Amino acid sequence: SDSSRTPASDQAGGTALSSHDTDSAMPTAAHTMDSGERVVTRSGGDNTTTVVKEVIAAQTGYTPDMLADDLDLEADLGIDTVKQVEIFGKVASRFGFAVPDDLRLRDLNTIEKLAAYIQTKIPAASAPAEDPVPATGSADQVPTDDADSPAAHGPDSPSLHGANAPVSDAPDDRFPDPASPIKRLVVRVDEAAMPKPGRSDFAGQRLLVSLDSHGFAEAVIERIQSMGGEVITLGIENTDVTADLSDLDGFQAAINAFAQTDPDITGYLHLASLDAWFDRKNREFASDKDLNTTMKSMFVLLKTLYDQLDRPDTFVGTLTFDSVVFPYMEDGGEIHSLFAGLSGLLKTANKELENTRVKVVDFSYKQPKKSLARIADLFLAELLSDDPRCEVGYKNKKRYVLSMHPEPARKDQPIVSDGDTLLVTGGAGGITYEILKQVVADYQVNLVILDINDIYATDPALLKPDATQADLMGLLRSQMPGEKPVAVKQALDRLVRVRQSIANIEYLKSQGISVTYHCTDVTDYEAVKAAVDQCDRIDGIFHAAGMEMSQFIPKKERKAFELVVDVKVKGMRNLLAAARDREYRYMFTFSSVTARFGNQGQVDYTAANDFLGKALFREKQMNPDRTYKVYAWTAWGGVGMATNPTVKKVLEDRGIQFLPMEQGVKFFMADLLDATESEMVFSGLDYDFDIDGLLGTPLDQAFPFLGDLTHKADDTAVWTRVLDLEHDVFLHDHTMGDVPLFLGSTGIETMAEAAAALAGDGSVVTKMSDFSIPYGIKLLKGRPKEIIFSGTLQAPGEFACGITSVFKTPNGKVMGNPKQHYQGNFFLAKQRPAPETMDLPEFSPVSWEGDLADLVYHPSRLFMFGLFGTITNINSFDGKTLITTVADRSEAPFFKGVADPNFQAAPVLVDAMFQTGGLLEFLTTSRTVLPFRIAAMTFFAPVEKHTDYLCITRKKASGEETNTYDLFLTDMSGKVFIKVTGFEMVKLTRLAPEDRITDKVTFAETVV
């Protein structure tokens, strides 16, 4: 998949590691690279060069005799910087010395130099360890893909596993684990506030602007000049810099010359791309000319002028129409996919050019030329604003931004039918193959696979099933006399992929389906058309071909950029054109989280993937009866690039959560039951990677208790949440003995959030009825506990909600029936109920011994602390009516890092009200009571922190098992904020004599 071919920086975030880093000092982390590995010394001393070669051989798959002393580690052996770090750490470990902090790998670029350096570092008596350190990339493992090879036009994730059975066919285990840290995210459009200005003008700025033919550049230039800026025009004629952006060689020459003669620009505005949009009716979809003008020329310019743009107070920007933000709205205009590719490119530029303001402003206007002045004003206002978000949109005088939200796939009718014929690009290996195995198992689809590798033209001697990698290496060396070891190694890598592809295809055929393989370069339209024409039937198309060649913009070669872009962009263009007259029902493609977030080192990859997504959105506009799905993956574990030990280590150091292969396959299969969503992003919630705030902030969640949405229908929703003491720190302040308890008030809050989320219209909770707690929720031994929240619409504004849990075995299998913990009905409305006031009772004097907090809060009485230490005074008590002062004054976090969450039902003060029922009993019967049932609770007005309220608690009845109370939370004048009627508390044991407080409190009891 696209995820398996990410750079060392990974699709979910981080800084790419490549040859760009060879001049940097060795990271401190290298000191612990081999932590825990045994270092054994022996008498005598091995030749240092021999030991270095042994380690390199173990880490790379070369044989020691291939490793000449003067070979360059990167140029001749293809060992990248990250792998060199790992090799050096292992060599140092074997000789028993620490990796120096100031080590510069560029000075040790050959085996000879490395061995000589090692020799200077080891004491005379030291010798290497007896046993070689186990190699994460040892020769007995399958070599990983050569990501820099142009031949990698095949699947984005060539298989590194043998052909085996589908991941899972258990009928009760078909769907992803809702508690997984990897989420299925969907993209939505949110209205946003207008940005504040960051600077007022363009004084001192010299901006290069490419011209369009429709007046937009002219209007932008006029405004820049009026605000004190200087403009250099770029275009075909009558411009300061003359260049045709569609002619990349000529454009490159022109920009090179410009960079030499005019090195002082402070920004580039790319508006020449607008012409293709205005003339889209007369142009081929994503033609080479438009692709060059829109995307490739932008890369050429950024690479050439990178140093000029990579500094403070610089700008890079473009404006687009209906193709970046608005494809995610129902009534968006016609999509121009190249705009999206340009936006993807600039999202990565935004991350690499850390000091540069990079903006893509998307407009949705039916007749943009009529609003040209307004568009120019808004575009420049965004460039000058203080908002660093890269992608924004404007429509109907409102500003919009994108956001992402966890949402499970619907469980509707399958998109794929039994016996379908599926045309797949790049399906013979990697993640695509792992998915195809399951699709074949479930739907018995027939496959037509297009891949660039002519696997069946391979020398039969190289395909013998029992050949080892050493055998293959020897055969290749004999066939490639005089070639450098790196060339032989790359040939071995390609051969392993070919052998694996053949094995995979044979496995698929063994499942009783038809598999047709065509050696096809997807960038060649005639080849694609010929392959498509040979298909009698096509029910679905799956474009999974792709490649990835990570490198930062200044060091990325144009050839590499074009290869990465063309496989995806031209591949999609050719597939759509070749199959234009075919009656297929659905089309899928693989994208990457980088298309949403951008990623250093992947300017081409993000551009290509963002193009792919909007290409399918465009197809959906033209063919609404077909189903189109874009799967944007994070890094997968156990397959593809994640099996490369170097990449795996970098991703793990970055904190990336890998998507387990089994879960990834389940995510894909689950989405085959959901035809409603066209783009799904599968990723952990990596807030650090999300510099544009698409995920929101964990400190400002609308419904902080709900967790992950695991089911959604028109009138019902289900969420799953793991209570964990590390995150849910409020639980530490509510423990019975050493067992944390989920509070009654937090149960009410959680169900209120479920009702509000299901309503989805900003309504507020006004009332709760028929609440009960059949079973409390305990975190025994402090272990995390998974709980399930549900809400169902009963009538307009009325929701039945509940909290349950299930018992799971250690391997995740559900046992028994769900246990009901909380349940209640919730009523929501746009307005609060009519205000109520009450006459406050006449206070009856009360006094007590000692400190009130010590009297009230005690592990044997009210076992609340910290956050829930809310009773601050006993104002009155007559034996039946207790009046207390309560306040939420804590500044401590409720959740980890969150001190003031967005709550619906005031759980801290509601719990304070509940506490007063327990306190009343301690003052009279010395019996512990716990919340059990509530007839009705009404919320008249929102409460505030750091505000004193009165809680009036009246005992109404005492039954055999429960006591019943009415509670009122008011201000000092009697305004009612919360009213609770029919509040039942279940009776537990009486306090031990030493814990009773009846003799410590004096009050005048009312005699009836």
From TrEMBL:
Family matches, as InterPro entries: ACP-like_sf (IPR036736), KR_dom (IPR057326), NAD(P)-bd_dom_sf (IPR036291), PKS_dehydratase_sf (IPR042104), PKS_DH_C (IPR049551), PKS_KR (IPR013968), PKS_mFAS_DH (IPR049900), PKS_NRPS_Biosynth_Enz (IPR050091)
Region (N-terminal hotdog fold): 703-833
Chain segments annotated as transmembrane: none
A Pfam family assignment: PS-DH
Residue ranges of every copy of the Carrier domain listed in the record: 46-122
Keyword list, A-Z: Phosphopantetheine, Phosphoprotein
Region (Disordered): 1-46, 125-179
Stretch list, region C-terminal hotdog fold: 848-994
MF term (GO), any: fatty acid synthase activity
GO biological-process terms attached to the record: fatty acid biosynthetic process
Active site per database record: 734 (proton acceptor), 911 (proton donor)
PKS/mFAS DH domain sequence ranges: 703-994
Name the UniProt record assigns to this protein: SDR family NAD(P)-dependent oxidoreductase
Protein source organism: Desulfotignum balticum
